[in-house]
Amino acid sequence: MTDLGMQPMDAIQSATSRAAAMLEMEGKIGVVAPGAFADIIAVSGDPLHDIKALEDVQFVMKDGKVFKSEKP
Q: Of the residues 12, 22, 28, 50, which has the maximum number of CB atoms within 10 A of its CB?
């Protein structure tokens, strides 16, 4: 999406909170909030500065548990 001119924040929101709105699940998915089904990824860079930082996920947090894949 950013290759076609979309700003990084807009691209991230289209995959999270805006997608939740389309599915009529606002407040349940696409947000980090109490009671929401939030899965969180951690990246080492700033995706608002360089969207490609999202390609190098350091870990995923799901249901409060951290999952980390060791690179070969």
A: 12
Q: From CA 18, how far away is CA 56, in angstroms rounded? A: 23
| Residue 12 parent element (H or E) | helix 8-15
DSSP annotation of 30: S
> Which of 39, 34, 32 has the alpha carbon at shortest distance from 59?
39
Angle CA(65)–CA(11)–CA(64) in degrees, nearest 5?
10
Strand stretches in the chain, DSSP E: 39-43, 57-62, 65-67
Q: What is the pLDDT of residues 32-46, one digit of tens each?
A: 888 888 789 999 999
